[in-house]
Specification:
The protein has 364 residues and is an alpha+beta fold. The protein is 66% helix and 7% strand. It has helices spanning 3-13, 24-44, 51-54, 68-79, 102-116, 130-158, 161-185, 191-218, 230-264, 270-303, 306-325, 329-334, and strands at residues 48-49, 56-60, 83-87, 93-98, 124-128, 188-189. A four-stranded antiparallel beta sheet has the order 3-4-2-5. The chain has a two-stranded parallel ribbon with strand order 1-6.
Amino acid sequence: MSRLGNLGARLYRGEVGYDFIGKRKIWYGVSVLITITAILGLVVSGLNMGIEFKGGAVFTTPKTSVSVSEAEDLATDASGHQAIVQKLGNGGLRIQITEVDTKKSDEIQDKLAQDLDVPREKIAADLVGPSWGEQIANKAWTGLGVFMILVVIYLAIAFEWRMAVAALVALIHDITITVGVYALVGFEVTPGTVIGLLTILGYSLYDTVVVFDSLKEGTKGITKQTRWTYSDVANRSINSTLVRSINTTVVALLPVAGLLFIGGGVLGAGMLNDISLALFVGLAAGAYSSIFIATPLVADLKEGEPQMKALKKRVLAKRAAAAAKGETEEDDRGAGDQEDAAPAGAVVGQRQQSRGHGRTPGKQ
């Protein structure tokens, strides 16, 4: 078995672990800082909306020796508006100019053919109306709203309303960060960006639901025991699914990174930049939020319940009594406790396994 696989098995069995829940204030602080930065980026820089949303003309030229910067100057002079030029893989250029009508488009096409020294008939011109982009934006917002509502309803039925609220917060967190990165980087927002944003919601939700499912199973009958608090079991749920989350995220990020850094950066494929940046940032943010935001938030909400408060009080009282007596874990087991007395997820390092280890935490 590989070292990563061995680590995953030890995390799942509770032999090693990291105290994610105990350090949740740190994760909350990091998320708040990143989110504020993203919002400031939106306020200060704004989104660079593509021509599909603002309307205008797109000119595609055949292979030419004119550089991108030279083409931008020529297109700006020909149209009187700021032009955006991208180099295509075949050596041609994609020139976008906003606020251009049909008559103006013909004039610009003639001028570009002359300045770039290419046949006019080989320059493809496409006009895009702003109403089309507005329809796309409205449908995207509608789809996002419907998705959020369905997610909350499903999670509230399949799990509970606290998990639904935590998942919703995590999704909003992921979308805000992704949109903020777009504003800071200055990438153009196109229909591909919208597709990428809607796609990452499913990936983000997947990791969150995996942890929630483990948490739901681990907390069955939790109030009937005095070994773990709800946060302890939540911590163990994160650790037991940690390697799975890392594996799925890395596998998903690798091809997306190829699209972003090779397809978009090296080959200059404009549309790949738009969708791949949204996917790359969203996948990374989704993996982070499922571990560091959603589950700790559920633990905070649950610990506020009277039953969980009473459970925590009993658990802490038992641990304090054991500490006062100077009992070790072996002493506690010898007294009839066949499970680990300390929080499973909070233990870092090797610990001995008890004969009753296979039982689910929370069951006698």
